[in-house]
Amino acid sequence: MSAFGVLLKKQFQEWLYFFKKRGKKLDWLGLITSVILTALLVTVFLLVFITFIRTYTKVSYQGDGFLERQHEILTITYSLILFFNIISGVRSIENNISSAVDLEVLIGLPIGSQTLFLSKIVGIFLNQLFNSLLFILPINLVFGILTEQSLYYILVSLLICLIVPVLSLIIAAFLAIPYHYFLRFIKSRFVLLTSLFTILIVGAFMVYSWILKVIQGLLETGVIKFIFDMKRIRLIKTLVSYLYPGNLLSGILLRKNAWGALLIILAFIGIVGTGAYFLIKKFFLRITQGKLESSRNVFKRKRKYREKGLILTLMNKEFVNVLRTPNYSFQYFAVTLTVPLMVYTTMSLTASLITKAIGLQLDFELAFFIIIMFNLLTNTFCATNISRDGRMFQVLKTLPIGHREIILSKVLFSALVSFASIFFTVLVMIVAGYITVFEGLIIFITTALLSLSVIFFATRKDLNRPRFPTGRNQEIKEETGTVSLIVFMGLLSSLVIGALILFARILVTFRRSEAFGTHLATVSVVLLSLLIFGLSLFYLFFGLKKKYYETE
Amino acid sequence: MNRGVSPSYKRKDSIRMKNHNILSVRNLSKKYGKSPNYAIQDINLECERGEIVGLLGRNGAGKSTLIKCITGYLAFEEGYILIDGYDIKAEPVKAKACFGYVPDNRPTFEKMTGMEYIHFIADIFKVPASVREERIAELQETFELGDSIYNLISSYSQGMTQKVCLMGSLIHMPDLWILDEPLNGLDPQVTKSLREYMKKYREKGKTVLFSSHNLDAVQKICDRAVIINAGRLVETLDVQNFKDLNPEMSLEEFFLDRYGDKI
Questions:
Q1: What is the ipTM of this complex?
Q2: What is the pTM of this model?
Q3: Chain B partners of A299 at a C-beta cutoff of 8 Å?
């Protein structure tokens, strides 16, 4: 087999490895689950898509109608597919070419860089083609049936399936180089990276809240057409006229200046594709060799160091470790910083719905439930409290520090982050007028107790079975079991407490007085939280010293 | 001096406490996990102030296990260890304050810069800020990290990581300096500097205990060589005495002759 064939085979084997158990047997269960989940995802998408096509194609704007709406739907759909394909392409090029670990080995073997590069590009293209077929074919099929398209449409659909991955790969190739240099630039700028993460989460949550608002509108009005008034249709038409090359692909399918559109696309592929090929090829070796060199120093600044106390020293160590590891920094800071926004949005959407549904204003109870749920669910960061120290956890045992100080510093650091998040969340709720200061205090205390319980539990669980990295520069991912348990604890606690407080409130309000109901519920919840806190405290400290020194 | 020791030690050897060695290992045995075999068995070792002791033995002989037990890195079942009179089990914090340790696999906090790491260790050992700069400058002269000290440790080579570990272990100028395979991965220049530094350290009345495969280095700098084989301490050698008695023979030749392929 030629070197090119061997390299392609290697990539295919690595792709298959994803579905194998410990690299040996095919994980049929995992494979079937993936297929079912993908099919489910595609089905749900198609169901929504069918409803959307049926509703949207009935909308008329200044005399135009069916064909225009079809063109808009396909343009937006193809633009979205291209968008996600480009993102996936950029990431694939970065992972498989610019930052591929195997290249460090392959570059030293007697394989031409052109062969190496081509095998990687073909591998990425095949992956993109697979994804395109998975989404474009069902979409085109459903769209064709609903809009009664001809044989021409079916044949051109197959061509589109081939064109889309080529287009996305060409555009991705151009973006991959600045993306690589951006990653290198931001690699050691940890505060900037965390800020970007935060902005991304906020952005994603804005989209999520917009979707929720649409759902709320649907629930309240029962129709979808209200979204597409004349103003919005005009906006969509303008947008579609600029959405290249999605509008061209749509034009080819719907015979709207099809030959012109096809020519433009082929010319684009020919000219820009050749440019992209040579560009990536030119940068290929430079990037690969560049990443093998040591990274640029961004810590040149000499600063004055002050003596710190033991706990502060250890907490500072936790802070530096978390801040400078993107995965941990994302979980600790970016997520917890955005919890207030998440809670506020969810609260503003659900409060009025619940009041309308049952005729009672349950802002305090609802806030209680939502705050506990969100804060506990975002606490998964403490699942690596021990493991993320790596082999240094053992070396810490050789330093003059007691086991309690080590564990305490980890718990305190996690608690500080969590408490800050709870505090700002409660503050937002008070300022927004959903709860009073006293109610806010009760929610803060209860959520803090439960949050500490999760931290105690996760820390001890990690100590019982730590997973230290085996090599340098490795990040430890959370143990799935621990994360599942934290999520389960979060959901269960919020559901039990939420249900308890709501039940007590409703039941007692109708039987006695509203104030009595609230007080009874509040006391019950605080007592329950204290019980959970006590149990997890016991779990953390029972046999801690023995376990700490025995961990090898 | 009333140093904290385990009751068993007080009972058995209380007289020795008045003039204790910097390190006393008595009847130390250690098994890993549920293994029926001992990794080290019945080890007895004394280190006096102002000497350099080399631990010799082939791979898997038990050198690292012994060092890890001494430093509290590993728990052990039998025997006891006193560091400057403090029992490592009964008073671990006080005992650990007496030594500096460089582990064999050079673990560090890779997300810290070299300088941050050294200050982290200095904070743990409560080294006053007023003396740190001077000490770091002195250590920089020996280990020559240069401006790389301000870089993230994750960007360091193996040798640079080792240098920062060495510097961190010395920032509090411990009475006992314990090193596990310290000569691995260092360039000849730094190896020479390290050997010179060990000698100077001994002259200050401090003790150095290190493990090594490098018999030449052991011969050049050690006062005593302790040989471990299959988990047992099999021989202790006065290096100067050996040199006087065997002027034509190197330590390496001696070991190869005596233990064959065991070292």
A1: 0.84
A2: 0.72
A3: 113, 150-152
